[in-house]
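pls read this protein.

:::
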Amino acid sequence: MFGSSTDEVTPCGKSQYGQRSKDRSGRNETTSYEAVSASSSCSNRGDGASSGHSALQPTAHPGQLSHSFQKGMTNSSLLASTSESSSHRGHGGTLCRTSRPAGAMGTHPARTPLTDYSITSCSSGAAASSASVMVALVEGRGLARGEIGMASLNLRCPELVLSQFADTGTYAKVITKIHILVPLEILMPDTASEKGKGTKLFNLVTENFPGVTFTAVQRKYFNERKGLEYIQQLCAPEFSTVLMEVQAKYYCLAAAAALLKYLEFVQNSVYAAKSLRVIFKGSEQTAMIDSASASHLELVVNNRDRRSEHSLLGVLNHTKTAGGARRLRSNILEPLVDVDTINMRLDSIQELLQEEELFFGLKNVIGHFLDTDQLLSVLVQIPKQETVQIAEAKITHVIQLKHTLDLVPQLKMVLKNCNTALLKAYCTSLEDSRFDVILEQIKTVINDDTTYLKGSLHMRTQKCYAVRPNINEFLDISRRAYTEIVDDIAGLVSQLGENYGFPMRTSFSTARGFFIQMRLEGVVLPEGKLPSEFIKITKHKNNYSFTTADLMKMNDRCDEALREIFHMSYVVIRQLLSTIHEHIHCLYKLSDAVSMLDMLVSLANACTLSDYVRPDFTDTLAIKQGRHPILERMAGQLPVSNNTYISEGCNFVIITGPNMSGKSTYLKQVALCQIMAQIGSYVPATYASFRVADQIFTRIGISYIIHNISDRSLIIIDELGRGTSAEEGIGLCHSVCEFLLSLKAFTLFATHFLELCQLETLYPNVENQHMGVQHTRSSDSGTDSVVYTYLLQRGCSEDRHYGLRAAEMTSLPSDLIKEAKTVVSKVSQQLLSRHHCDPETLQQRAVYHLATRLLQAARNSRLDPDSLRMYLKGLKKQYEAELQAAEQPVATL
């Protein structure tokens, strides 16, 4: 587990563990430890066991498993990908054929690995998105083409997720879901991926995911009847209602059958009965953000530097566990659409911000949890072969399970006085009596002082002495032998130090075992060299590391003793695991609680680092002094803030302005704030109100938007038609705008085509805004310069010819600039003469605006009577001003 750590061992009989450090070159330095003598651990655990533990004493002879254990055999080899298709045979014939998509040669990842048995408490964006998900995908045939069945299972979390939905010919929903999952491997029927005859779905998926392994599984394994049997057999009782949801979902059941059969084939292990969390996830439960929009908005990855934390996930991710980070990432990519659930999260964050004791208490306790999802995943898997590696891993898992369950009372204590509904619900879920039942069963076998520790030697010692004494006499004998060997090693190093007069100390690493270290400070070496007795010498700065032939032999004896200890311990641990399997489902509650609490604390922590405000949910998108959350993180100071107002009566905003004036940044800011609000986070503003969006689009292809848009979508379009001629671009934009104007979706449309501003005079629900700039002239050189204010202002951009202004700042001849201005002036006058603002239209527009604002006030106002009276008077003055302006209309472009 901790293969790169190095521990120092001294024969003082104490155990402390330190932390690994690195020098600037990235190499591991040795960290000193007050270390463990195995004899002291043995004496601490030795004779105090009661005879009541004999109920789990194994009847098997210790040599029963010894053959495979002593050889250290692995249970199966990895199935390697090749540039050509290769068949893998299981029991009774060919199961699958694996191939790489074209263009992925040389960079393709390895095939599905065996389960990773290491479980840590680290949390990072990388950990949240690292590939560990297996996906099976199948499409209906004939009249059912376009009906997609999908099953996914995270190898680090025993959760089988089923989905079935109808998709369009672009398969955008499939691509988006796969992007969210970050799959390690994708399984599809062999009939969909035949050479030269691949289906459109197969071709699109392989094209969009060139770095993912694709495996063609025989079509017969995509069997919906077998899939339903698998789910009935493996689904935990707490989630059995999913059977009613999926009984008629034939395609997702077929995908589940192929996936589970393939995992059994590759992993060489099966899941215990009634152990999996099975859920059906429909596409209507969360807002949809397509993969191109997620990339454009930099939701989880920065586009310039994938290692950078300058993304929305990087801004909000202050989680302490890998499960919390995964949950935050998932929520960002699939925001909630249920207002009640969102408000429950916001209530919890508000309580965390108001109650410092609760906030810091949760932050401290959650930081001690390991990856509960991954721990649960390995606990419910039953290996078909038993090796020394699996035995050692299972012992570790039991220790980690004990460590996790020991934290449950502390978590309950922190939550006991909470007030919000969500925190109370999680506190109640921790009252499950099965936590205590499992812990008591563990304590009948495992020593009370056994705990999870960092550091390879100390965790190794914990595993050696985890099982109580007097349960297995052969185990006790093996441990005494191990203790004697470790004491002999400490004595050997001490004797060598005395013989040569060197300050030697015993150290340990997983890779080298026990070895000798010596600092050179104050040491004079004969002839500048170490004695010939010392071999495998390495030097790092002022430290020598080396060993001797005798010490290497002792290491071999020590390893042999360890194999016997793990063998004997596993006989006991295996029986323990069989008794706790029936109660293990309660860990799903714990995993859910820890990951959600970790995410809520992380979102609350983000509020403490910046000035965020709790959002409201109405039928209006209104943001006062909103800021770009990623830009705020990058700049380290408050960026320029802007206001936003979109309602049903004014749901289409056209934004103009020169290049680099801040249009694109503003559009992304609105979308990011919308997403933050819908995951239950506070937002960077002084006031914020949102209408829940079921889909969020950025400019990814107008055809896709048109085919998938709804009245509750949020659409961000940035400079549509910029790659065409002006006439074609204006025509395309005008037709798209008219289509979008027929819907109630909220649209922000940034463009350089000022002709589109005329739409404001034709449609009452259109509003023109622009990013302001200031022009200054140097008194010394007489040259013009542009100052960007980054402030959004009402109306169409007055700086209509910013291209000419930019040309003036170059070295172009003044005659050319003058001629260009003349031509532009004539063209503008011709266009101006064609457009007139009809006074009657302007009056109707004023009435429309007044009516919609009154309606908004009636629906959403929380003002007291005096404030409401002042607001209505302001509306009256604004209405009168608009009517007065309508009497003297001015033609505009």
